[in-house]
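>> Question from a student workshop board

For tomorrow's exercise we were told to take the sequence and the ligand below, predict the bound structure, and bring the output to class. My setup keeps failing. Could a helper post the expected result so I can at least see what it should look like? The ligand is flavin-adenine dinucleotide.
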Amino acid sequence: MNGTLSSQAADATPTLEREFDLIVIGAGSGGVRCARIAASLGARVAIVERAHWGGTCVNLGCVPKKLMFYGVQVGKAIADGPAYGWDVTLPQHSWPDFKRSKDRVIERLDGIYVRLLENAGVALFRGDAALAGPRAGGGWRVEVGPSPLAPERPVTVIGAARVVVATGSSPTRLAIPGADLALTSDQVFTMDDCPASMLVLGAGYIGVEFSGVFAGFGVKTSLAFRRDHVLRGFDSQMVGRLEELMAQAGVTLYPGLEPVRIERASSGAGLVTHFANGTELEAGGVLMATGRHPAVAGLNLESAGVALERGRIVTNARFETSVPGIYAIGDVTNHINLTPVAVAEGQMLAETLYGPGPRDQRDFKAVPKAVFFQEPLSTVGISEDEALADGGNYAIFTSSFTPLSQSVPQRPGQALMKLIVKAGRSPDGALAGSGAIVGVHMVGEDSPDIIQVMAMAVVNQMTKAQLDRVLALHPTMAEEFVTMRAPQRFISAGKVVAD
Ligand SMILES: Cc1cc2nc3c(=O)[nH]c(=O)nc-3n(C[C@H](O)[C@H](O)[C@H](O)COP(=O)(O)OP(=O)(O)OC[C@H]3O[C@@H](n4cnc5c(N)ncnc54)[C@H](O)[C@@H]3O)c2cc1C
Ligand SMILES: NC(=O)c1ccc[n+]([C@@H]2O[C@H](COP(=O)([O-])OP(=O)(O)OC[C@H]3O[C@@H](n4cnc5c(N)ncnc54)[C@H](O)[C@@H]3O)[C@@H](O)[C@H]2O)c1
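>> Workshop helper replied:
Here is what the output should look like for this input. Compare the format with yours to find the bug.
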């Protein structure tokens, strides 16, 4: 994969071997985009990757997770088959078979990333990168050493006027005894088989998504979390609906539990997790989904003077760190840890450094998000909780219904959709909800695709009155968003004023 390095001498002496205009550390979502665009704008670019081309999203994140999500949907479709007249027997899911298929797709994608970079003229270096001090005449030296996937590589030093740190983030393990017995999401993607039961710790994105995957693949699944509800920062009514769907999907929810210790079960091959209130839960495996931390270890950032704050690299709006010539993008800045954000940052930085400036100004305030549970929760803009907290006037439109697709197999579970609209007062003082659409939320099938489109309305400040001009496309789930007529309630000065 790494033609650039194959011709290097096996001499371990770190001499300045090649010079570039830009060195990008980390070939993930942000780094690859930044390197490709900078090279296309005429810069001489090197990219260093210690593990997988394409980074977390392609190898240990969004893509394999979405393949698992699809795998679960296939199982549901097979289960619905008899009700629709198909003669099917529900087979057992085979994790090893699925893993082989998934790995083939990821391997192909890794190859595509290498070709994209090479075709753009970027020099690829496989190894562990660290800042190695200033370069004579300005800029920085970067040392590329052995890494777990390139253990034999000699140390190379390359130099450039500018360095972009795009090293992403890594899973965090809680500092509790036995934490090493638990898996992280990285290991779930690479494990050869899945235990018959799984306990997931932590109910953020990864905890909720993997609970849906395990339960959907027939694994007995429990989810234990510290707070009263899953997913912090989302609209609480939507979270409530998601929790109903999680329970219907067979995920046992254990709120209010703080893990304190994990140990091997005395009987069998399972693990017992102990919680602060004395509760003990046993399962074949434990997934620790308790957050991620910026990947800054070993980069020598402190000795270069790069300012960190709670482990993340501090940058300004131009992605500049505290040290001239060193920039940072993506998860390592812990800004908004999503692939499209890292990609947009990489593109904007390359266009700023080697072009006339960013071609487009992205809106980082209304970022569409989806949590890919079996019925995903998707959202853009403000939640009803935020509308209540900000003291303004809002109209809340909702629609709750059983999707048509579920009627034949009589599968339980209701979709929920919500529009949050700025409200004004008519001359008689009554609230009227026809202003800007500031929040759109949905729990249900296809919600990520529907919310992606509705994000256009929020980002471009479309009004509810404009949305009302759109005819429905029938029969679809999405049509509910253009057929909501009367608000369920208004919010004014932090209070619900009509229901
Ligand atoms: C399980 C999971 C599911 C996710 N699902 C989604 C989703 O559905 N949608 C979404 O938008 N986001 C999702 N994310 C988040 C998304 O993957 C990240 O926000 C995104 O990958 C960040 O891109 P990045 O370029 O900042 O870093 P990364 O993609 O993490 O890339 C950083 C790269 O730097 C390399 N690196 C680190 N240190 C060094 C070093 N010293 N030398 C050389 N190389 C180094 C790493 O090996 C890695 O390849 C998910 C994340 C996880 C973990
Ligand atoms: N669909 C997506 O877009 C997607 C999917 C996965 C991950 N991501 C990105 O990756 C990031 C990381 O995901 P994540 O799920 O690892 O993190 P998260 O921050 O979303 O959730 C972490 C969970 O761990 C819990 N936790 C933290 N410390 C704990 C402790 N000491 N004891 C018990 N529980 C504790 C938190 O309360 C929370 O429930 C996300 O914030 C998101 O930006 C996005």
